[in-house]
Amino acid sequence: MRSEADSASGGEENSNESRINRIIEYIIKVAGGDYSVQLEVSDKNDEIDSLAVGFNMMAEDIKNNVENIKKDMDIQGVLNNILSLQIKDNSIEYILEYSLKQILSIAWLSLESKGAVFLVENENDTLVMKVQNGFSSSIQDICAEVKFGQCFCGRAALTGEVQFADCIDERHDVKYEGMNNHGHYCIPIVSSGRVLGVINTYLKIGHKLGEKEEQFLKAVADILAKIIENKNIEKEKEKLQEKLFQSEKMSAIGKLASGVAHEINNPLTVILGYSQIVLKRLKEDNEFYKPLKMIEKETVRSKILVEQLLQFSRMQKVVFIPFDLNKAVEEIIQIVISKCKVSNIELIPELDAGVGLISGSKNQIQQVITNLCNNAIDASNEGGKVWVRTKHFKDFALLEVEDKGSGISEEIKKQVFEPFFTTKEVGKGTGLGLSLSFEIIKKHGFEITLESEKNKGSKFMVKIPYSSLKNIC
Ligand SMILES: Nc1ncnc2c1ncn2[C@@H]1O[C@H](COP(=O)(O)OP(=O)(O)OP(=O)(O)O)[C@@H](O)[C@H]1O
Ligand SMILES: [Mg+2]
Known about the structure:
Layout: H1 4-8, H2 16-31, H3 47-84, H4 92-104, E1 115-121, E2 126-133, H5 137-142, E3 145-147, H6 151-159, E4 163-165, E5 183-191, E6 194-203, H7 211-281, H8 289-314, E7 321-324, H9 325-343, E8 346-351, E9 357-360, H10 362-379, E10 385-392, E11 396-403, H11 410-413, H12 433-444, E12 447-453, E13 457-465, H13 467-472
Parallel strand pairs: 8-10
Antiparallel strand pairs: 1-2, 1-6, 2-3, 4-5, 5-6, 7-9, 10-11, 11-13, 12-13
Adenosine-5'-triphosphate (ATP) binds at residues 371, 375-376, 379, 403, 405-408, 416, 421-424, 429-435, 458.
């Protein structure tokens, strides 16, 4: 509002009234959320100037506070979103990908929209990149696996401490062509003092370390640590439940078998005996010769099945006796080799001389080798190869049977150790070989694992710790 005096003096821009009017306009703008305006301070140095300086300072403070509140809201929003993932049944890959995207969605934090999440694998000394955003394929290859201690991420994993850099320095071990100068936050994901992984974000060169940013990334890492830990516990539980289920099934088969096997074995022995006696008296061209031969063959098959079932019930306790693994393998492949010759398969032993003694039931371990070799032979084409290997490591010996045969698809992989699971035609397989082998290995406290790819082949591995030897020697 202009006073008459001001108007009379030609409506001077610098009249007190117009200066106060400018302050009022300014206040309205600031109240409306426009903090870009600044009040001009004249050289009069009077109370109105003091007021203007005070208002400018206040507006700057409000601007900073509003920015901080916005940042807090961004952070809270992202943390809530990541936290809510826990409630739903999401895979760990999905959770990591979603969390990374959420972090990178905060424009004031990750100015390059580039980052990755790594998880610890391989006996706790390697970070494996699980998800990334904005990485070229060459960076994805170079950083697919990062050793503890290597580059920023590896250092974060090794020390369990946040690694911050506002530019590439001597810690950035990874170099690649066309690499632009940049900074990083590498935040370790830690649970109960154990590093589970690392979050890596790219920063523009010269980006200042921000306490709020660091706290936020650490909060995300803490949530991820809890999620990963819970997932691991869930996985362990599922594995245990599976094992329990398998054991219960095995013991049920064992009980059933011991109950009925003898009852079945006796009549089978009679049928087999009489059919063989009659067979000896018949000429091959006799009309009953073929049917009787069939009776003999099927009776033998039934007796083998009964014998296998009985093994489940007999396998209550392993008597641990030291024996030479390589010798046991050599002995048993002499028997397996006859089956190889029939199918024209080459059996190749590759035995590590350093393996030495292991402890367990030699007969049972030989039975496992036989089952694995029989399966490998059945899965191979004529002229194929089957390898039987022993390997020596510091704390354990490894027994491997490998073929380049039909391989096992992902769905079938889950079932191969189940009793009575077979893909072989009727009369060719009982589906007990692997379940029996699994039971033998479990009773020994050893471990059996399988690697296989459809149409490429299969490798069964038995890990035999030397500690079982120490326990009895
Ligand atoms: N090396 C292998 N390659 C491909 N498939 C395999 C291999 N080993 C096992 N399998 C699959 O696993 C199934 C179960 O094997 P398992 O040894 O328990 O029973 P089987 O060989 O069918 O019968 P049995 O051993 O009782 O005579 C097989 O039928 C086959 O489908
Ligand atoms: Mg088999």
